[in-house]
Amino acid sequence: VIGVLVLSTLAGYVLSRYRFPGNMLIFALFVGGNFLPHQIMMIPVRDLMFRLDLIDTTAALIIFHVSFQTGFATLFMRNFIASLPDELFQAARAEGASPF
Question: Would you kindly state where each structural domain of the chain is located, as residue ranges?
Fold first, then answer.
């Protein structure tokens, strides 16, 4: 949960506050990943875990769940951060807060 929260919050902030070439493409990849059934990825993920020698380990379970839940959480975090007023971020910058 901590890994998903950290990654999705950082990605959601960047995707909602900064405009750069490919911004919407990256967001579309996050959203499009949610439409991919997990069953389609079972064999490639199993093969990857064999190659990384992570079969029957806790690390494999953590990597699997973080990678498959980050796209969904990023969708929510991007929309939440985009709904916050810009004055809130300006006030934080005036107080000395960095974007990170």
Answer: 2-94
